[in-house]
Amino acid sequence: xxxxxxxxxxxxxxxxxxxxxxxxxxxxxxxxxxxxxxxxxxxxxxxxxxxxxxxxxxxxxxxxxxxxxxxxxxxxxxxxxxxxxxxxxxxxxxxxxxxxxxxxxxxxxxxxxxxxxxxxxxxxxxxxxxxxxxxxxxxxxxxxxxxxxxxxxxxxxxxxxxxxxxxxxxxxxxxxxxxxxxxxxxxxxxxxxxx
Length: 195
Fold this sequence. Notes:
Blueprint: H1 2-30, H2 37-43, H3 48-54, H4 66-78, H5 86-103, H6 105-116, H7 119-144, H8 151-168, H9 173-186, H10 188-191
Helix pairs in contact: 1-2, 4-5, 4-7, 5-8, 5-9, 7-8, 8-9
């Protein structure tokens, strides 16, 4: 029975990957608005019904790593070593995400151009990122024994996640991430230049 479940899960994962890969290729080639759900399903050799079993919307096809991203953010807080602060663990996580980006710079740049040139994708991406913010804030709150809706934990989660946008517009992304996390960890008074 376990073997059957393993095979079924592998097949689902392969179908999901085929759909996401086909969608990305079509969207990059033709533009998001010019590609239909049917086009993606046909390119992956599945029905539109099968596509919707794996992805709730056309926008979701581009963000197939969404659950993995959220899990990694939460794990950065929950699974850190006892001598590492939550802020330092998030800094390390965000810098690690930056190093992945440099290894796949060309593909990621094309993906980002597509997202930033399509209003529906901008909105979807922002909504997705905000879901990560809630999950991260809850993990931070649980870590310190605070209520799940603790405003300080929500603020830390929000600001930590915004470092990605800051890094994306900086000529020195790693320095931008470090500066932001220095500020989060030590506060404004400790990082601003003295007169």
